Please model this.
Amino acid sequence: MGRPFFILLPHGTRMTLRERLQAWRYNYIPDHVIGEILSKRWADNAIPFLALVTVIAVFGTAIPGFFSPFSLLESTRQLGEFAIVVMGLTVVMLAGNAPTGMLRSETDVCVSFWLGAWALA
Model:
């Protein structure tokens, strides 16, 4: 190893390159700005929305035909099944201490019955 690289400051003291980089970081990269942004009320909604937009943009460019009419049609067909599961899990979360599997299956059966009774399925 060689000798450490020093920077001579105007008042005669020496500062290593590591200390200089650390001082640069604290002077030019404000960590408190990120904390201030995350403490705002609108950040609770903006961050998941930006994550959703990012995921859609990444998959839309990475997968050929992601936005084709057939792909969108298949996605909307699967949305109904996911909606039934989400309703079941919502009931579980609202109930709190109930067994998860039992409530989810009961909700799936009830929603399927209601959709059949309304001739939506």
User: Anything to note?
Assistant: The mean pLDDT is 77.
